[in-house]
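cache lookup: miss for this entity combination. No prior model stored, computing from scratch. Input as submitted by user K.M.:
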Amino acid sequence: MNDVTRTIKDLVIANRILAHQGIVDAYGDISARHPSDRTRFLLARAMSPASVGTADIIEFGLDGARRRHAADPLPGERFIHAAIYEARPDVMAVLHASPEDILAFSVTQTPLQPVIGSVGDMGGRVPVWDIAEKFGDATDLRVSTMERARDVARCLGRHRVVLLRGEGLIVTGRTLNDVVRLAAYVPRNGRTIVATTRLGTFKPLSAGEIAARLAIDPESNAMRRGWEYWARQAGCGDLLSD
Amino acid sequence: MNDVTRTIKDLVIANRILAHQGIVDAYGDISARHPSDRTRFLLARAMSPASVGTADIIEFGLDGARRRHAADPLPGERFIHAAIYEARPDVMAVLHASPEDILAFSVTQTPLQPVIGSVGDMGGRVPVWDIAEKFGDATDLRVSTMERARDVARCLGRHRVVLLRGEGLIVTGRTLNDVVRLAAYVPRNGRTIVATTRLGTFKPLSAGEIAARLAIDPESNAMRRGWEYWARQAGCGDLLSD
Amino acid sequence: MNDVTRTIKDLVIANRILAHQGIVDAYGDISARHPSDRTRFLLARAMSPASVGTADIIEFGLDGARRRHAADPLPGERFIHAAIYEARPDVMAVLHASPEDILAFSVTQTPLQPVIGSVGDMGGRVPVWDIAEKFGDATDLRVSTMERARDVARCLGRHRVVLLRGEGLIVTGRTLNDVVRLAAYVPRNGRTIVATTRLGTFKPLSAGEIAARLAIDPESNAMRRGWEYWARQAGCGDLLSD
Amino acid sequence: MNDVTRTIKDLVIANRILAHQGIVDAYGDISARHPSDRTRFLLARAMSPASVGTADIIEFGLDGARRRHAADPLPGERFIHAAIYEARPDVMAVLHASPEDILAFSVTQTPLQPVIGSVGDMGGRVPVWDIAEKFGDATDLRVSTMERARDVARCLGRHRVVLLRGEGLIVTGRTLNDVVRLAAYVPRNGRTIVATTRLGTFKPLSAGEIAARLAIDPESNAMRRGWEYWARQAGCGDLLSD
């Protein structure tokens, strides 16, 4: 199987896992950079992630325009993905979603920092992007233009995750599995912080611990363990083999 | 298919989605205004929403009296729906339910205001109706007469949502999907507010943002995305087609 | 069908509903007074409620001794049921369970009082029984003798519900459905109180409202609606008919 | 059936129950000491617990080296199990997992003490092991060497449970059922403590009550009740019989 066929299958798996894990519901979108053309990325048409199949995947350019594969309707969120691939050559996969248990961190002053080892590779700082800062207080909060999306990418900077005020978060990664695994545990980290506020002050991961977690190969057996399990749970284990 | 047949099917879908999403349990009731006779509305007989079928739908007048289709028993909640259609010509669908995560807002002083974009179209203010204010402190809390129901409608005013103290909430909308989508996210907004109280002060949506969300067509593709997905999840995807 | 056969079927349904609703897990026990002999009651052998069938039901006397139907092992909790039927002629059904969201109320000073209408018939006061008060601080917390059980019944008094410190609660009722319905909503009332502590002071139901809720016939259509629905959800709808 | 065959089947059941109960997800590992050779223990290869079968079980020595049965890859967590069996001759089963609702206790100062009777046999004190104390603040938090594991065993001491800062917990027991039952209720105890902080000060179990709970035979009918029920729920009831 050629690379892009494999990537498309993996993108379908990622959609299904995220839906089954409750990281996305009817909304939420994950993309992968094209494996042989770095100026393109793959993203499903506007539809619920749980129903995405290989025929729903569209190829986009870094300007957010459709390059290949006709499927309707185009997702309004394509600009977010485009702007991040444009700004961050190291990023190979992007998730935009609204998992409930990070929303409170997007509208308050408490930073979403890692307290559990499994999200150590989230990095020590998660910036919050507030659309009102640059685009005023009368928007519909949606990142629906390249201009807005580039401002999100600017706020993301060199970090792995950025919160969108009142909307959700963006998770970037080195591989699709890298994004899915981190996204699966970030809400748990949020819930743990909320619980700790009842129990005293908490000890977050240290800078050294964060660096050590980031140094783990995201495709190592230990980090891949969830992928196959979750794919089977989500009912798409057949897509795992070539 | 004529309009009313389509509306009845959609009303069955709405019942099933709400049950599957946990917005209603054994209790809770959703109605739609009759598509060709504005003086009537459609509502299921008194039964658990998850089991509602097309034969269970009854046609009522704006006084809460049955006009067409025999099915027993009549729901005590029909007056709530009647009074709101009577008072609000712009309302085409009404939900009365007790999703758990809004109950605390109905018995405390903290207003249920939008902090997440997906409920921006809830409006900036959600009034609370306390049955004791007008009907004394010895009622069974149920809105079981037109007199009580009209007082609820008065409290709702021009808003989209009203909380009933100790009982639940009413969500109104321009379409059935409009009500179901908003109802699906209102409890999430409530949980997010509760979580924020642990993390600092929160930033709610601004008046301009609320207006921008309300300006989105409730039947646009972006707002309809949940309907089909949730209907299939709820096992009634067959009712989607004519 | 004679009365006792119907009661046994209903007791099986009650076990299955409570398991499916998560009110009981591997532990928890519900009984019904014998419909034609007030000195006896029916309770399953020691087993997980989700698996209880009609052949598992044992007839006990008000001393907790087995009177009829051999099934092993005898449940250690039979004394709780016996002592309550002995002390309270008005009680026709008893549940002993550990739903998680009432446990915090059993070990703190905050009373579990009704804030939502659906548990208005719980009554205005729920006493807490602490085994250490009478039996010292070196018990295993289990109500495993008639002496302990009679002390629980004394603490219950004329109330409908009593909390057992660190262990759970007992719910009494006029019918099996009366107990199941109330038990299904008491944890929700607990969660709502916990949420309200973040949002300000809460307004509980008034004495008059509680009296009005208690005056509703527990076998009226409005109060029976959950029973059939939950039985079908729990996979024992076939036991509903004679 | 010989003892080791039975133990292997029980270990598979334990894996499946823990996965079905949500105590483990893609990660988490449970072992049993070899029934006829106290210098060995049984543990699955590195894989998701929900998928473990009898062919996945490997025999290890107390140094963490594989002794018997080839299956890949070896779990990095084998050292944890080895060090505990080495240090604690009384321990016959060990679980290492990350149930979410104990994580907050691993990063704050509030001790995880028993407030509900069902975890009285957890003991009165649960120490917290912080990898940074001995191994510095630049580790990846994983207990991946015998040296680290022996330090965990030292911290566990004579207790039954030890928390690992930011990572999870270890539960030890006299039998597999003893570990699984306790692990099923420890998170509930954690959630109850968190809830109590909103309701006042809480009363934990007394030393005498803890001793009384520890004195209950972990293989008595009352303590075994969950095992069969949970095994059937987890879909591996067929493994219960010889």
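stored under new cache key. The interface with chain D takes residues 25-27, 46-48, 50-51, 73, 76, 98, 100-101, 103-105, 107-110, 130, 132, 136-142, 165-167, 193-194, 197-198 of chain C (CB under 8 Å).
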